[in-house]
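Customer ticket, subject: "Can you confirm the structure for Sigma factor-like helix-turn-helix DNA-binding protein?"

Message body: Hello, I'm evaluating your service for our small team and ran a test protein. I'd like someone to confirm that this is what the system normally returns, since I don't have a reference to compare against.
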Amino acid sequence: MKKDRKKIIEMMSVDFHRFLTKEQSATAAELAEEFGLSLQHVRQLRRKISRKNLG
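Agent reply: Thanks for trying us out. I re-ran your input and got the following:
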């Protein structure tokens, strides 16, 4: 429960517009470093973005 809350807070602090702009050309490691996220969170965001673009 505590991990889930931390994960949500961490992901909510991301500037999504900037993330969308940079995710087209940056690697997962570069995005993680720039936005202060884990690689797992970057991959999750990318998956969610690609799902939204499909529907």
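A couple of notes from the result: The chain has one domain: 2-54. The helical segments are 2-12, 16-23, 28-35, 39-54. Feel free to reply with more questions.
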